[in-house]
Each structure stands twice: as structure tokens, then as C-alpha cells.
């Protein structure tokens, strides 16, 4: 371990690409001795402008709790439990993901990792990825954009429908 200063900051959404970014962030944290900071940003479903017109703190609390549950689920999906050898911090923050990630990873010694879905069409670029565009424009630290796995349309549908229990049973049958 080199013990480099700063943190490894990972933007988490629960997507396959963000799970890949979490795994890469864990490897970076292990290699450098830095803590891993998993960040889930959330906004009111209808947007901040409409929420300000009719604010309701109880709804905001429910949305924050939902974001915290999604962050915990993503960490469990990525690691199968928190690894003891790396200090992992969790933050659930209100705001647009790109802005929140740039604000959290504000130190020059930080490392920011963001997952980005792989595009099957060449016409889709950065303009369709607001988080990627925001961190590319606003990050003051080193930035790594991690591509998610390439999946066929049927594979993506199957993964959305399957449960963790189904995957574990299949893995046991193949090895047993």
C-alpha cells in the first residue's frame, strides 16, 4: 500500500456500469490505501423547480430514505457484503448527480470514478449522458469513466428480471 492522500469517490446509481465502477473503486482503494466514498445523489422525481413550488418535507424524507436503500443494495450487489480491509463511507446527497460528485470529489488528490453505459449506436454521445458531461466539465481531480458490460438486448432483460438468489443457485449447480 502506498498510502496516497485523498479519497476514491464513486458515483452510484445501481446500474451495471456503476457497479463496475464500485468494483474498480474498491481495487483502487486497496492498492492506494485510500478510503472509498460511495455517493448516491437524488432529486425529487418531478424536479427541484416543481418541488419548490409545493415543498413537502415528508416526501423529501421518503425519497432520501429510498436513495439510501438503493445505495445499500448497490453496495451489496457489487461486493456481496462490505469488505473489511477497506474503509467504505456512504453518502446520500440531494442534487443533480454530476454537480454532487464534483462537489464531493473536490480535492486534487481525490479520484472520481463514474460508470457509463456502453452505447450500441454510434450516434449516442456525451450529449445523452448528463452525468458524464457534468463530471468531464467540472471535476478538479483525476477522473475515470468505467464502461458497463456489453449486453445483448435479451441479456439485459433477463438480468432485470432475475434475483440474486437465482444467480447463486445457478452458480452452485455449475460448480457442484
UniProtKB/TrEMBL annotation:
SUPFAM superfamilies: Adenine nucleotide alpha hydrolases-like. Residues 7-146 form the UspA domain. InterPro entries: UspA. This is Universal stress protein family protein. It comes from Actinacidiphila glaucinigra.
